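Annotators were shown the component list below and the corresponding predicted structure, then asked to write short factual statements about the assembly.
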Amino acid sequence: MSIVTVQLGQCGNQIGFEVFDALLRDSHSFQGLCSKRENEAYQTSCKERFFSEEESGVPIARAVLVDMEPKVINQTLSKAAQSGRWKYGQHACFCQKQGSGNNWAYGYSVHGPRHEESIMNLIQKEVEKCDSFSGFFIIMSMAGGTGSGLGAFVTQNLQDQYPNSLKMNQIIWPYGTGEVIVQNYNSVLTLSHLYRSSDALLVHENDAVHKICAKLMNIKQISFSDINQVLAHQLGSVFQPTYSAESSFHYRRNPLGIDWQVRPPLSGLPPLGKMSLSKDLHFNTSIANLVILRGKDVQSADVEGFKDPALYTSWLEPVHAFNVWKTQRAFSKYEKSAVLVSNSQFLVKPLDMIVKKAWNMFASKAYIHQYTKCGIEEEDFLDSFTLLEQVIASYCNL
Amino acid sequence: MTQSVVVQVGQCGNQIGCCFWDLALREHAAVNQKGIYDEAISSFFRNVDTRVVGDGGSISKGKICSLKARAVLIDMEEGVVNEILQGPLRDVFDMNQLITDISGSGNNWAVGHKVFGSLYQDQLLEKLRKSAEHCDCLQCFFIIHSMGGGTGSGLGTFLLKMLEDEFPEVYRFVTSIYPSCEDDVITSPYNSILAMKELNEHADCVLPIDNQSLFDIISKIDLMVNSGKLGTTVKPKSLVTSSSGALKKCHKKPFDAMNNIVANLLLNLTSSARFEGSLNMDLNEISMNLVPFPQLHYLVSSLTPLYTLADVNIPPRRLDQMFSDAFSKDHQLLQADPKHSLYLACALMVRGNVQISDLRRNIERLKPSLQFVSWNQEGWKTSLCSIPPVGHSHSLLALANNTCVKPTFMELKERFMRLYKKKLLFSLVTLLDIPIPHVLEQAVHFVACTRHFFFQVFQ
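Structure shown to annotators:
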């Protein structure tokens, strides 16, 4: 069950490096909380999932690195090679000389079509190396030009070329105040396009991760490196192999195969009214929750709290919406760890905020000339706004 | 990685340009310890094998052989350029990339623009095309000139239109030195206003700088250095006005110190494009983020620190001071008051060991005291470059698109009108077939632009 990762732009490449590093580090750290055989199965599965073997024995990441200017890719390649434990493929990167200038339109309408063939070829080569291919993991930011614009274009192409493979996009939500002035435009355009072509959008907010670094980890001078490492850690504990008693290969569950495809009921059907005592507490209503537990005492862990109907929308039984994966093999240096992946109203507020700010700017037509000169017209903006308003409304109605 | 070409026009432009190349060499020498010609250096320099006759064969990799600046030097009198070519930097310039004349423009925009423009049009085009051909991927032209004279102002702006037509995809960043009130060139208001129209229409981005601000900065530095408080000493290389460690050894004229400030501005502006960092900012991102409407492209710049004291440990409070300084008038390169005007957009380009949390903390701290336009309340663009400038552990360049330029431009217009009402020096202008109504039209257009500025902002 192999995953091909596509790292796009400065953010995507910087994070991608940390993710592969964290995955390999974890696969080598055995705490002895499960049997040696279990551990070996885990390690084999992890290696197969994210790395391919070379004659020299150094694992090569199953990744394609894409950026429109060379500095970051060069740095990423050399950092990986320096670690000595793993590296990127020699020909696994696509690079140009001039970046996208924080312009979504440039990334999508200019760089996309221009380099479509080269990039898709690289991805194809990586897919062919997999014995059993399970899907794509695309890492990108929303605020810039390459990750966001070219990322949206590439995802669309993947949808066309590999309609039966799963695509999960890891999106980085920018800080509320300024990394990029046009970040709200870029975000709105990215999200509306990804909504049509991606299977799942896994979101991490820079503000939230920053808070984790400051408050939970007490780091004084937080760098992007720190932030990316926290992110990589979270992603690692989601994507590392999980034990499944169903198949004979115990660690072959498809990590991207989280059942996100939930359809709301047709109107006219009565909602499943399951009132719970704790209805007074205001939870973000969820459509689906996945809990992944690793380490000591997983079998005895009590997850009943996650089955509370108050957490879910009225037209879903908790048993359909909630999943738990338990693995005895511990993650990294933690004796016990838990991850919650949730499809809920949690993102309504941030999404609404971004749409509002983008609309506010759009109303004054500021910066629009930069987009129209690359082929993205005002109608495209309006379409994007409409789609996102619909998404917000759908989530609010849960 | 992309390349940029510097086009230095007129006496002022060439003197600043000379300082720029000097400091650029110093910066790259400090960073590039192994003497390998890498992509960072290639952004401003070609690597040339001087044994090859003629153009000098370009070498794209390997050890540095001989560096040639990606520059075109233009002046309608020979003095300044000759001095450069006899000075310590003579080997850095390509002899084929010069255009000079003897008579000069006589501080007359019309002579620079119309007379020399048409006379040297073909030569200019040829030199510019040559310099573009030497580039793998040309991204930007940096034009350096003054507004008050004849060549820099007239011929410099003639060039702009030419660059727009010939290289429409390449950015045009203009560093313009505006005349101060006590400017000794009487025609400077005429020249400046006539040049402004061209800047409005043909530049992507303009960094207006005035001599008065530069002079004030130097005075303050001198005061600080000479007051010798409590045995603190200033690191010589860290003075933003100094040429220490560069090829030119001493301040020959007071203008040298002022020119070094502008040279440092350009180095810091391009640092994130040349060197690595955790949050890169390329030149095309400057235009994308700071120019919300095509004609509103005037950016007020401020540079900090101006010098570094010799003590090594820099506590975070000192770091925060750097951010506060960037928003103080003492560090601005233009006489204006951004804090009491409206920000349309603001960029912070940080160099050195500064992390995202430092940046965020300071933005949160400074935000409440600054007014941003309603449709861009969080209008901040940030970048982090790991390599600090020579002599400093970190630095900050703030670029603000702010309505505070309006009073500056209005004042210029007033000076223009004072001359114009008295019909002073008209003959100079009309002699060259520039009709009187045309001059007035320029002035009116200019005023309209500044009004347009305000209108857009308060829409």
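Statements collected:
1. The mean pLDDT of chain A is 85.
2. The radius of gyration of chain A is 21 Å.
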